[in-house]
């Protein structure tokens, strides 16, 4: 479809750098055809049908090679800046993260069509996992400045972690490749991973003017109210532009199973082996490690230590449905 460039500049929001929505913005949709729950062609058909019926201008930008995701997202941002459009990510958590990383600070609105298993980010802001419903919410949506976390300067939407948790995610992805994407498969893979004795990390944590030494198999930093509530950790500090860290002290396999069960029943916060605290900035050194495997919104990578977790000074300009729950509002 063709695009008309704006004839006059539109004032941008000081909070997010993005302009107010008019309801006529063209959509630049980065669609990861290799992620999500179902058929990529069926997903594209739904998108085309809904947007054609609505008379909304759009460009589908499918990606079948994960190595091209960042470049495609960057191209979508450049085109959206020219056409006063919205960049939309369609895919799982990793896809949302990759596209949001290119959007942050660029002065363009960000929309999502979530296709992941748990959809914590979308659910937090009232965005449906049903593609047609998500599209209709996007078409009539409004902008909300959304807090995002940074790990060594790289964005995360839901959480970032090191140690046992990245291993759980790696094993979960392997099981999903074999047995399909479902919450039951995710739970089973976690039980199998915990059978192996996790390696303990020697962590030095610096935050709020404190220095704390801790031995733990994992450290997880959360930025999502729903996920924290789900496991029984108080999320209210997120409303104060802070992040929440969680770590488990060294325990055996049976105790880890107990912690997993507590998490399933939203009681992890009162477990004696769990440490959790809020912070503005957290520096993490790992004894004997110059590089460490980390997970950010489910995607695994290696990163140089020490690690620095903090809240981004620039919020993400997310398009949310106008009937989003009050909890989705800043």
UniProtKB/TrEMBL annotation:
Pfam families assigned to the protein according to its UniProt record, in alphabetical order: DAGK_cat
Keyword Transferase: yes
Top-level division of the source organism's lineage: Bacteria
InterPro entries given in the database record: ATP-NAD_kinase_N, Diacylglycerol_kinase_cat_dom, Lipid_Phosphate_FormReg, NAD/diacylglycerol_kinase_sf
Alphabetical list of PROSITE patterns matching this protein: DAGK
Enzyme Commission number: 2.7.1.-
Keyword set includes Transferase: yes
Name the record gives this protein: Lipid kinase YegS
Organism name: Achromobacter insuavis
